[in-house]
Amino acid sequence: MTETTPxxxxxxxxxxxxxxxxWTTPILWALKEFGRQRFVELERRIxxxxxxxxxxxxxxxxxxxxxxxxxxxxxxxxxxxxISELGRSLGPLFASLSEWSGNLGKVxxxxxxxxxxxxxx
Length: 121
What we know:
Layout: H1 6-9, H2 13-19, H3 24-34, E1 37-38, H4 39-45, H5 51-63, E2 67-72, E3 78-83, H6 85-88, H7 91-100, H8 104-119
Antiparallel strand pairs: 1-3, 2-3
Organism: Amycolatopsis rifamycinica
Keywords: DNA-binding, Transcription, Transcription regulation
GO molecular function, one term: DNA binding
């Protein structure tokens, strides 16, 4: 019997791992919607993220090529982040997900129906 890796079983699994890991979507969304931003601006826009986690996610997104970090050698130094062209290419995916979010009411109704059936078991 041959083992199947998740990537072979589902070819979009690696994409999901990159794009939908926790905090990636809010960071990319903020950069797409509001343009180039400094760290503190992103931190304010994504109020529930810690500075440590934001730093880690920005580094990973830069490594993945989805975010561009620009260092300005000024006094004091200034660092800005912006979404890359590769990151922008996710726009249609985000638009589709935004459109699909209209179904969240149906998901909540299905959950409630399931939970009610579960209590009768």
